Amino acid sequence: MKRTGSLILAIVMVLAIAASMVGCVPEQKLNFGKELVGVTSQLDALNGLKKGDADIAVIDSVMAGYYMNQTEEFKDYQVLENVVFAEEQYGIAAKKGNEALMSKINEAMIALVDTDYKTVADKYGLTTELLVKADTQNPYASATDNSWNDVVADKELIIGYTLFAPIAYKDGDGADAKLVGFDIELAEAVVKYLNTTYASEVKVTFMVIDWDSKEALLENGTIDLVWNGMTITDEREAAMTISVPYLANKQVAIIAKADAEKYNAANYDAFVEKATDAIVTVEKGSAGEGIVVAAEK
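RE: above sequence
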C-alpha cells in the first residue's frame, strides 16, 4: 500500500512538473492581432474567415485578386485598403544543388517569354505581374550536375503544389475536375518546350503537398520542384535552388466587408492598433505567416 501511494505521488509530481514546463513555454508573439490560426493552405485561410474562425486572413494578392473579383464565393469579403504588408517575387524551387534542372526551367521560361508565358498570364489576368523578360539572365546556365539528366532518365518531373487559385485549382466537380491555373499550365508549357528542344520524353506529374513540408519533400526526393506561387526569401535561397523571379506578388489582408469600418486604416501602424483583438489566419509555412509572427530577437 505504501509503495502504491509512493507511485501515485511520483506520477502526480511528474505531471505537475510537465504542466509547469508547458506553462513556461512563451506564447507566440504576433505583429498584430491577439491569436494566430495556422491552416494547411491559403484557401483554407479564406474558408476559415468565411466560417467565422478568424477576423482577418493574410494571403497573396495574386490569390486575393482572383477570389475577390472573379468568384461569387467570397463576394462579401474584400482586400483591406491602404495596408500592404510586403511586396514579393515568386520563384520555383528545386533541391539545393540541383542547378542543372533549374537551368532548364529558367531557359524554357525565357524562351517562352513572348508566347506561352504571356498567353497563360493573360488567361488568368496576371500580365501586369510578369517578371521574366527576353533579356533575363539564367544564373545556372553553366551548371553541370546530373539533376536534369536524372529527370530525363526517369521520364518524369514531379511538381509539388497546393490548391491556390489562380495559380493551381480544380475546374469542375468530382472525377471530372481538371487541374488548371497559371503555374500548372506554365509548367506544362515549359516541359513541352524542353521535350521538343532536347528530344526528351519527360512527363509532368502534379502532387498535392503540405506546404509546411515542401523543403523536406524536395530534400528526400519525393518531388522535384515546388512550383506554386512560392515567395523568394533569403532563407529559402539558402536552403533550396530557386529560379529567376517569374511573378510579382504582395501580402494583403482579407476582411469581411461588414468589418470595413472596423479595420480600415490610413497606414500599417493604424491598422495594427485597430487589429489588437483580431484573430488572424494564415497558411502554415507561408510568407503570410512570416508577416504575422514577430521575429525572435
